[in-house]
Amino acid sequence: MDVPTTNSGARLVVLGTSSGVGKTLITMAICRWLRDQGVSVTPFKSLSMEEGPAGYPVPPDGVIHFHQAYQAIAAGVAPERDMNPIAIWTTPDGVATSVRGQRTSDWLFQEPATLRTSRSRAEVLDAYRGLERRHDAVIAEGCGSPVEMNLKERDVTNLWLAEATDASCILVCTTVLTGVFAALLGTLDLMTPGERRRVVGFVVNRFDGDHGDFDSAVEILETCAGIPCLGVIPHFPDGPLAGPVPTGPEMARRMAHSAELEERISAWTAHVAGHMDFAKMMDAVNAGGTRVSLEH
Fold first, then answer.
1. For the chain, how many structural domains are there in total?
2. CA-CA distance, 242 to 109, in Å (whole number)?
3. Domain CATH for 170
């Protein structure tokens, strides 16, 4: 792909083998861990889709997904529109959209696919660059699977974003959905050589079972994938998303700034830090050409 690139700070895209593997929570933990190391960090998600009006309000009259608002709180920064430049959600009348904080119902669905993709990518990159200019690290959350082959030409959230921003990637999978070998190795196999080189490690999330019994699985995965396992994260039932789903923008705002969410983020990050090698991950990101200095 012939795309422009950015050239400062640390850039990471958190990919997943599918929806539901925990990209949102892993991104949140990385943001909080980096904040605790003294790094100015921001979350990012190019495009989000949700059921119902649960978005966090941003000016002038739009929303971002409440997940990105929670990630911003984890990062120690105020939620803002560029963290989720394109948000789509359902309404009683169909769907609604917010692009850079501006509600719109036209071009995202009415323009031809090629033009829509081009315009979406321009909005995404402009938002990303704005965040990058103000922060030392941008941690982007992907969407679904990065290798839906019929959709890759219209991708705005996964491997296209990694290439457009010259970012490293980690790949999150889970044993909860079973088939972890096929999910992880199959996802990597469907990437181009250039895309695969961006993936610096993988994370097994929501693990239930005896870690000792899984050691051989990790060895096989590392050997076959050619990249290190950065962590095997045990299931954690009381994470930041364990509370109720907001039913509207004001509820999303209240929940994002609540003491309960802060406690859940801290507990979740401590849990992940006990099982994931954040420093090893950042060493790999820095080795990939994007750099951030840690206080300790």
1. 1
2. 33
3. 3.40.50.300
